[in-house]
Design a protein that fits this description.
GO terms for molecular function: imidazoleglycerol-phosphate dehydratase activity. It catalyses: D-erythro-1-(imidazol-4-yl)glycerol 3-phosphate = 3-(imidazol-4-yl)-2-oxopropyl phosphate + H2O. The chain has a single domain, classed as Ribosomal Protein S5, domain 2, CATH 3.30.230.40. Strand 8 (125-126) and strand 9 form a beta hairpin. The strands form three sheets. The protein has a four-stranded mixed sheet, with helices on one face. The protein is of the alpha+beta class. It contains four helices and ten strands. Helix 1 (34-47) runs parallel beside helix 4 (159-178) and helix 2 (64-82) packs parallel to helix 3. The two termini are 20 Å apart.
């Protein structure tokens, strides 16, 4: 099974993540930030990646460390579960509509982390979550996972819908990219022979 467990303890956060790439989208998420929990639940459900996340963070200071470290830990778990990446589809993309909103996400499990974020969030918060941290979550996740990630909100007005479409787009793109290609199940999807 392609699974991973990550424990990450710093002076700012204590995190435990369990991930199963070949799951059913089952989740148990407790970050202490309600809207982040909601987004990670969407990520799990729509990627079919089972995800357990438990964080005890320094929320009495602010949400930055919890947001950043959750992205790092989930990204590390994804990279660990992928192992040598043998047989994966590697690329994934998705258009994620949500009411008036449409977001496009494309990714490459390349081993070359990069994030392009073209999402304009107008308000300072979603629930209690600082919206400036949302881009940072995606950057932290992509860096730790070793993926090239492009997220572009094409249009939309409701911030909740915009952010949720970003996470659902990521989920659907990941679902495709981590799948085993039955025609190439024993090979690395790169002419270099490694990712």
């Amino acid at each position: 099974m392609r699974t991973a467990s990550i424990t990450r303890n710093t002076s700012e956060t204590a995190i435990a993540v369990e991930l199963n790439l070949d799951g059913t989208g089952a989740y148990s998420v407790a970050t202490g930030i309600g809207f982040l929990d909601h987004m990670l639940e969407q990520l799990s459900r729509h990627s079919l990646i089972d995800l357990t996340v438990k964080i005890d963070g320094d929320l009495h200071i602010d949400q930055h460390h919890t947001t950043e470290d959750s992205g790092i830990a989930i990204g590390e778990a994804l990279a660990k579960a992928l192992g040598d990446k043998k047989g994966i589809t590697r690329y994934g993309h998705a258009y994620a509509p949500m009411d008036e909103t449409l977001t496009r996400v494309a990714l490459d499990i390349s081993g070359r982390p990069w994030t392009v974020w073209k999402v304009d969030l107008k308000g300072p918060r979603l629930g209690e979550w600082d919206t400036e941290l949302i881009e940072h979550w995606f950057q932290s996740f992509a860096q730790a996972a070793g993926i090239t990630l492009h997220v572009e909100n094409l249009y939309g007005t409701n911030q909740h819908h915009i952010v949720e479409s970003c996470y659902k787009g990521l989920a659907r793109a990941l679902r495709t990219a981590v799948e085993i290609d039955p025609r190439k199940a024993d090979s690395i999807p790169s002419t270099k022979g490694m990712l």
